[in-house]
Amino acid sequence: MLAFLAATCRAQGVSAPASVDPAQLQIAQRVAGQGVPLADLAPDAPASHTVRPGDTLWGLSQLFLKSPWRWAELWGMNLEQVRDPHRLYPGQVLVLSKGADRATLKMGPPVATAQAVLAPATVAQADPVTVKLLPRVRSGPVDDVAIASVPAHLIAPFIAQATVVEAGEIDGAARIVASPDGRMLMTTGDVAYVRGDLQGRRNFQLVREPRALRDPVTREILGYEARLVGHAEALGTEDLALPGQGTSRPSPARVLLRHARLEIGSGDRLTQTSTAEFAPFVPRAPARSVQGQVIGLYGEGLTAAQHQIVSLNRGSRDGMERGHVLALWRTGSQVTDRSTPTRESLRLPDERNGQMYVFRVFERVSYALILNGQDPVSPGARFTQP
Hints:
Strand content: 35-45%
Structural class: mainly beta
Largest sheet: 7 strands, antiparallel
Mean pLDDT: 77
Number of domains: 3
């Protein structure tokens, strides 16, 4: 889809949608209009598919392709049909177009749906007395929300509960010290006192128990995974005269607890409010070679499986982007060759163990959803481009 979009943008002299970043546009320009070889289509790829509520970009990719991360190459949609390549809506029809040796995917006429919008009636006057109303249907997207890249319910709890902060941000972060009435625990609507520099900011995330995310090889701390407990808004500071002293000194700042996911108490830290974007991104392979390792698993388990979230030791500084599909590898076992008298020890080759989808990226850390896998995934597992 990005490919043909880029070509059409150039031909028509229009700008690409804001959701297409320059790197994606360059990739699109390289593959513009080509499509994919027929051999890369899924064996049972349908001639057409009507987008339904609950569909995802990944699911549609698997429906048409053996290699779902090549989704962008398959698209042959033009700018007149879709101005934003990251938007697909229920009711739209995807048509597989096959040539001599390649295939593309285009948009067909939308299907009639129960949510079709009725246009104002057309009036046909049969005679001076009788007026006949002829309703007509105007087609349009049947849902205000585009389909997600992956099932939203799988990543929504993570998005609401976890964030990554830098070491310096945690060390210097302001912290809650008390409540005006002396209560140990606070909740939504309460006012709390905090100590530390608010740096002129107004809105904050409240986090607790930051856990160091270390590179499995270098042991470098790449960031801190913190548990989100709520949100707060600064109410300002005042200078209060302390009893028995002729001078004044700054009192703790006051914040209003706008939202509490958990009970908030002394020691909870204030960090910058996340502005992460979670719009759907087309599943695609990284533009360049990449390899790294799983840092850890989100949650309390020792291993992860399908539809669980893992943290990776690669981030935006390494070229990682939302929408990247990565291959997981299982490390080959060390075995003894009992077929020879010497009984030599040898290491078996690594084998693919599944795929994962990157959906959130920080500077040095990323988070990915395991899409499928054969064996459980443990910290230290290797990943590469698919």
